[in-house]
Amino acid sequence: MSFNVERNHSPDPYNFISDEASFKTGKGVLYNCPTCATQFGSVEDLCNHLMDNPRCNGIPVPLSIRQPAGPGEERTACYHANSGCIYGFDQPNTFERMKAHDYEAHCTQNVYYPFADREEWELAKFLSDNLNQGQITRFLKLLWVQSQARKAPAYTSAQQMFTFMDALPKGPKWRCTTIHTEGYITTHPVHLIWRNALEVTRHIFGNPVFANDMEFDPYEIKVNGEREYGEWMSCSRAHDIQDQLPPGATIIPIVLASDKTPVTRQSGGLEMHPMFITTANIRSDIRMKATAHAWSCIAYMPIPQFVCHPDFCSLLQACVWHQCVDIVCENLKITAATGTSMVDPSGHLRYTFTPLVAYTADLPEQQMIACVSKNASPITMATQSQFGDGISYPSRHGSVTIEALHQLCQDVDPWKVQQFQEEAKALFLSGIQLPFWHDWRFSDPALFLAPDILHTLHKFFFNHIFKWCKEVLGADELDSRFRRQHKRIGTRHFAHGVSHVQQMTGWEHRDIQRTIVTTIAGVADAHFICAIRALIDFIYQAQSPTFTPSSIATMNASLGEFHHFKGAIINAEARRGTSGPIEHFEIPKLELLTSFARAIPNLGAPIQFTSETSERMLITHCKTPFVRTSHQRASFTQQIVRLLDREDTARQFDLYALLHSKTLSLNNLIDNEFEEVIDIDPAFGWCHIPYSGPHFPSLLLPSFPLRMLYFSRIGPATSVHHPT
User: Fold this and answer.
1) For residues 9 and 235, what is the distance between their CA atoms, to the nearest angstrom?
2) Which residue, of 195, 293, 503, 573, has the fewest CB within 10 Å?
3) 170 CB contacts (<8 Å, ≥6 apart)?
4) In this structure, what are the phi and psi dihedrals at residue 465, rounded to the nearest 5 degrees?
5) Is 57 helix (H, G, I), strand (E, B) or coil?
6) For residues 644-672, average pLDDT
């Protein structure tokens, strides 16, 4: 089954052709160093200059490569030989593209135009962030504001103030597309509110806020002869993709996240299903901070209410969801297949590809993405009867799912929903016949569905491990032991016990995990304690920021130790349901633990893909702004988008205006005005001052000149060309 939608295509803003002669001779043209402005007669000379002068080389060195070796440790690193060519300098990054808007001429005289000055702008930003329209208008009509003793703002009402703010330079535009569910009736019209994911990616990739914290080339780090996995660029999958791209191409690894959340309390039943995007070029410790604004919302997926039998509603909603993702990410798919040009934060032009490398979601969302039923693993071929047996099953690659769907569609008409769904469930499929990833190059759900630390580990601990301990000790004894623990700075002390808590935050999960083994010691059976300790060890080891084959094997050994002693949990009747003791471990999340070791070489450290960041964004992009809307089903999503669009515009314009008003570059701003910048954009509190340590050319650069640049001169500007 499929739904009709409107499509759009974005043209490539640059054209790439070959001109090797220009590289060596320069044809009498002088080329400037982008940092020190020294002129060179050929690009080859410019490349040699950049290699010999690390301060002129604007390419940030990955933090894991800069990390010094420890005592008795041998640490080596090298880049992929054919990655990350630069095809031009001084191209407009995200902030510089903000200059091109309708009021550019006015901004040369007053950077805060249409506002009179910075004071008037800051007042507007404060009012917009903290008051609703009625409160803003009442404030502006106060005699204290309109008094002649002080300068009154140019705007006299909320509507006029928002008109001023809407005239500011904006990022990627929001759109609304109507989804036509032909053959199926919905209670309300189905609207997808979205942004072009390629435009948003270009906006993030060129943001100078992250200039010093980005990685553009796959690299390999070895510690005492063992490969180290940390950032996505250090993993095997990055090298595999780079090997299949044209020489000199740059990977922009797409990371998506989505989740459904209620926005009303007790009544109303309103839900939202946002989707977020970022790139794995941004270093993980920066990307994981919600206040760094490294993620952007690209869509609010519709949740249609179909007038049909309840058994088919979830299937139809999932089909609409996949179709909507296909609309939002269409240009990313084209770019993953053919490539396009993008400008990085330093103004370097790159030939880029956009594979989907990671998707952060909870288990139900992963099953919807992988198009499998609820009694099957979205990552492996394991089914419910095989969950928890400790066996590592083959990966459920996307090609296997597509082949099964193709055969099923030949046997059963997808429009016969009931029959099609029944046959699909027999194959452990959900009944979605057209997954969004089927035509996305390099995208495989067995590889891009990332292990989730929050749901797979911490919530698994609270929903299962913690309950097993409570069953063995008893609620009163467990509370008594937690109350008697010494208070420690940085760790919550549970003065009222823990058994009564129905829901906890991730931090509270961690605080309980720190002491749960010693808490149950002396009461529980020794084998039961060994099983719990093994799982706690696995949870801690899985959160490491870096891995080697040895550490992965140690983590797997902890999981194997649990399976060796798990019979003690059954013997203690600690695993219980509503009807009494449960004699098996058919737990879906327990099956997902076996996929961690397989995922690390392909994705890097799982901690960088935890859903804690996306859970935080559900608050900032759904629940908090919902309070400021009319709460009407037909319009609250549009109102939230309007609020968030103004908030994003204001934050970026604030920093953009400060840069231009003081005529400072971003790097100089970090050095000279750092505290002021953090006040404007908290992202700078997480970002780092440019690296000024030693340079290691033999380790970090390939044997040929800096990625082999090719140029030719056309008119007064430099035109950049891609080598064949």
Assistant:
1) 32
2) 503
3) 645, 649
4) -60, -50
5) coil
6) 71
What three-state secondary structure class fits 429?
strand
C-alpha to C-alpha distance for 189 and 344, rounded to whole angstroms:
40
Residue type present at position 573: E
Q: What mean pLDDT is predicted for residues 461-480?
A: 92
Report d(CA 434, CA 130) in Å as an integer. Answer: 44
How far does the chain reach from its first CA to its final CA, in angstroms? 42
Crossing angle for the helix pair 636-661 and 118-130, nearest 10 degrees?
160
Q: Which two tokens stand for residue 388?
A: 């928890």
SS3 for 243? helix
Q: Phi and psi of 705, rounded to 5°?
A: -55, 155
310, containing H or E segment? helix 310-328
Count CB atoms within 10 A of the CB of residue 418: 12
Q: Which two tokens stand for residue 233?
A: 């660029």
User: What does the chain come to in residues?
Assistant: 724
Q: How far is CA 65 from CA 218, 295, 328, 495, 608, in A?
A: 12, 25, 35, 45, 18
Residue 28, helix vs strand vs coil: helix
Cα 495–chain centre separation: 37
Sign of CA dihedral 570, 501, 590, 541: negative
Beta-strand pair 349-353/250-251 = parallel
Q: Could you identify the residue written with the tokens 């902890």?
A: 558
- Residue given tokens 């314009």 in the structure block: 653
3-state secondary structure of 278: strand
- Using CA atoms, how far apart are residues 123 and 118, in angstroms rounded to an integer? 9
Contact by Cβ (8 Å): 722, 712: no
Helix (H) or strand (E) holding 530: helix 526-542
Task: Give me the residues paired with residue 351 across strands.
Answer: 341
Calpha distance 209→344 (Å, rounded): 11
Q: What is the pLDDT of residues 503-550, one digit of tens each?
A: 777 778 888 899 999 999 989 999 999 999 999 999 999 999 999 999
* Closest CA relative to residue 200, chosen from 163, 156, 252: 252
Q: Give Dmax over CA atoms of the chain in angstroms.
A: 86
CB-based contact 380:390 (threshold 8 Å): no
The tokens for 88 are 């031009």
Q: How far apart are CA 481 and CA 538, in angstroms?
A: 24
pTM, to two decimals = 0.86
For 383, phi then psi, to 5°, come to: -115, 180
Q: Tens digits of per-residue pLDDT, 347-383? A: 899 999 999 999 999 999 999 999 999 999 999 999 9
Conformational region of residue 573, where left means phi above 0, alpha means psi within -120 to 50, and beta covers everything else: left
